[in-house]
Amino acid sequence: MSLIVARELVKDYVMGDVVVNALRGVSLEIGRGEFVAVMGPSGSGKSTFMNLCGCLDRPTSGTYELDGVDVSALDRDQRAEIRNQKIGFVFQGFNLLARTSARDNVELPLTYAGMPTRERKARAAAALDAVGLADRAGHLPNQLSGGQQQRVAIARALVTDAPLLLADEPTGNLDSKTSDEVMGLLVQLNEERGMTIVLVTHEPDIALYARRVVAFRDGHIERDEIQTPRVPA
Amino acid sequence: MTLWALFRLALVGFSRHRMRALLTALGIIIGVGAFITMVALGSGASAKVTQQIASMGSNMLVAFGGSSNAGGVRGGTGSSASLTDDDVDAIARTVQTVRWVAPMVQTQAQVVYGGANWATSISGTTPDYLDVRSWGVDSGAFFTAQDILAANKVCVVGQTVVDQLFGEEDPVGQFVRVRSLSCQVLGVLTRKGQNQMGQDQDDVVLMPYTTVRRKLFNAGGAAANAVSRILMSATSAGTTGQTQQQVLALLRQRHRTTEGDPADPSVRDLSEFAKVAEETTRTTTLLLASIAAVSLIVGGIGIMNIMLVSVTERTREIGIRLAVGARGRDILAQFLLEAIVLTAVGGAVGMVLGTVASRILSAAMEWPTLLGWQSYALGFTFSSVVGVVFGFYPAWRASRLDPIEALRYE
User: In this complex, which of A57, A80, A95 lies closest to B326 when CB atoms are compared?
Assistant: First the structure.
């Protein structure tokens, strides 16, 4: 069974008097353990797709099943719980809580899951170890480099053992060397843990790390093909 | 998230924004501080008035005779001295709601002891007088019913008289001269202080009323039985009005007078006066408390203001929390608890400052203050309510943020 099953997803925004048709009927299946790059120019609908994928928004019509659950009809709080349990987010701007240690940032999803402190601490430590930042657990985001901050964000995304990791331009704020390191980490998580990764990017170099590339244009899927992924240095 | 986790989160938040937290709490600190101070001053004043009233006597009524009319020259109330011992007996016998009754025969006289002399008021009465006036004897004893029957030459003196005539000497057992009458001091009254008119209640010499009439006045004929007024105590605060009516009716019946008659006796309910005074101070306390309450509300609006700014400033934080799985109620609880913790801490500090301020004012202005647990409970409740009420709207706004918009917020 596929992890993501999207059927005829439509999303319209009303901006003033104008209706923007951001998605015009997108159907897509993503299997478990896939590494998919979502590409397309700005305005192509890839960000809208990403928001729907991440249960941050609801489609105007169409259905979206995540891990066997139809989440397109869920309310705000139910979607929050789905995000908490099934999805890990990695953003372009890292989106760590300022003035909050790496450890506390990683623990954040677990506190909302209501996990007991002891278990929470142990899992946060393990997640930080997995991204190679065990020795930086007590550091604040502003004491870490961009690459390190993004690795903390990745640790936060994997700490709940969510099946899906959504990365929205994860290397947009990083130089090419650090970008390669971060992408290497994502490839590793995909291969070793079988995490399904959906990567939104407009950089062809970065999209090369994925095994499948889905290109959006004008609210449609323009291209969906398998490729031989680039091997991280 | 558990309440404890939210509480810790709030504390961590404050430690990161110390100045902002302090300024926010300041409104509540001042509000609660002012509230506590005002209530302390108000209830202190109220307690003082109540005490003064109590010193006058409990549930006290006074009966006066009518006015005299000698060849067209009218005397004032009580000038006819028409009340008699028989009236006193009749009141004691027939009016059920009178607890104590004491006749009064009054005059002014020069009192001499050794080389010192002092003009004071001489009151002839009975031992019941002490009960009516809620008074007591400090040293020695009061005169007895036996002294009254025999019209013994004895007296009990007030503290002021002691100060003026005896200085450091113990007056009990000594002899003083009242006009030409030598009488023995049996006891000294406790200090009662000023009454509400500023009159010194301790400047008095009490004697058996029989002694005053027979030995000071050398009264004969009708005057041998006359009393200038009759003091009474009703059985309770609720029966003073009824007692007043009954005593007045009785006296009118006995003296065959009607309302408007110059010789008509009058009965005054002094507790009414007390009620008015108590009402006044209660109103003052209420007024002070409401002014303080207004300042508390202003403090609450300050909290709302800063919380709203804080929500805007932390939009991205809220977005991150929502993205990783915080539900609307988690965000609501987080911001609401911040407001509540701020007001609770502010309230506690305000209570301490208010207590200190009222002590200082009390000392500086010689104004009595009174702080009961009720004042603290009220201040605490009020500040918590302010925290919840004014913290709710910003917290609700935060909880309704759209995660996508919030994450995009710069």
Answer: A80
